[in-house]
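Lab notebook, bench 4. We co-purified these components, and the gel suggests they stay together. Before we commit to crystallization screens, I want a quick structural picture of the whole thing.
Request: model the full complex, all chains together.
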Amino acid sequence: MRKYDVQLDINNKIYTLSISPQRTLLEVLRDDLGLTGTKEGCSEGECGACTVLLDGLPIRSCLLLAVDVRGRKVTTIEGLSQGKELHPIQKAFIEEGAIQCGFCTPGMILSAKAIINSNPFPSEEDIRIGLSGNLCRCTGYVKIIKAVKMAAQRMRREL
Amino acid sequence: MKYFEYIEPKDLAEASQILNEYPEAKILAGGASLVVLIKNNLIQPSHLVNIKTIPGLDQLRWDSKEGLKIGPLNRHRDIFESPLIRQHCPILSEAASKISSPPIRNMGTIGGNICHGEPAADFPPALIALGAKLRLFSTKGERIVAVEEFFVDFYETILSKTEILSEIIIPPLPSRIGGTYIKLDKTNNSIAIVGVAALIGVDEKGNCNYVGVGLGGVAPTPLKVKNAGEILLGKKVEEDLIEKVAKEAQLIANPITNIYASDRYRKEMVYVLTKRALKEAFSKALMI
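Here is the predicted assembly.
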């Protein structure tokens, strides 16, 4: 079985790996690099648990071959905090109680980051559209939307 | 996933040659549909040919004679945001906005959306209404086909073993034109139960000088309502003529029943939505 040498830029760190082409970015993140913050849900691109940012935009890491990520920047949930200081979106999720079981939370937070990055003044509708690819099966969307609003407000102040 | 070899060709000729050499090879673009098929063992490619390494396939440009030329690797997000698309064929931008969720729109490409051959896909009805043409490249020769002739059956297209979709061409349209893509879905942006794209152009006398109607989700392939031109062209756009086109759409629809909707419901809705789409297209054309 042929393996392919790739360099992956994940959370601003370069990893040099030799991988089989059928392995997804999700598998490499979790199994090879131990970055288990990214979750595997449906594995078919429906649920959003595996969402990571690719060049700043949310994508499904379960549908992306790791060999196809060459030369691009990946951000996972582990790349958000500064040392022990949590990212404003992470703080807002905790303060608003926007987490129940927590399985969807990494994907939700990364989608939220992309929403706020592209529009510092997101309306409730912008947030709902931006999070439409992330399912929460504890059904706690109200608090999640509140948390994203709160985070956007705080991040605007920091601008 | 079963093992496959992975190849990054440098140009279309090399990609086409690889397809010729390995009959079980598949083209990889965004991967949003392909990887799901492989994971579920619905296809077992021997090789994946990643065409994202080929330069120029993500271009998007306007040519005043030939119209818009869209490279197949433009993602749904690119189509949605492109100022050129919004200026020359906003209906395509509208269709892009209705495809799945933001992460999928950041991955999936317009070329992949077409070549997947999904009968309920959102781009094909809009492309049919626009009169789009597809350029198919092969080392054995190139051809250009009308988009409605591209689809053969459920997930089946006319692409031969060595052909690759290399460009989507949208010819220039009359200046006073309105259009819309209406999608009936179960939840926001889930797969279309029925999708109807309609475009109407009117001349200075108020007569119809362009009409295009494309349907999705109501047959084994996306459909063009071919008789729409015969019914509307050169005439004043009146309610009874719009109804006639909608009846025609209903007549050619041959839908299936699945968990989302029954065939009868789809057949009813294709009439309702074609009427609605044509009315909306006409009122938009009058505003220009």
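The two ends of chain B are 52 Å apart (CA to CA). Worth comparing against the SEC data before the next meeting. The first helix of chain B runs from residue 12 to 21.
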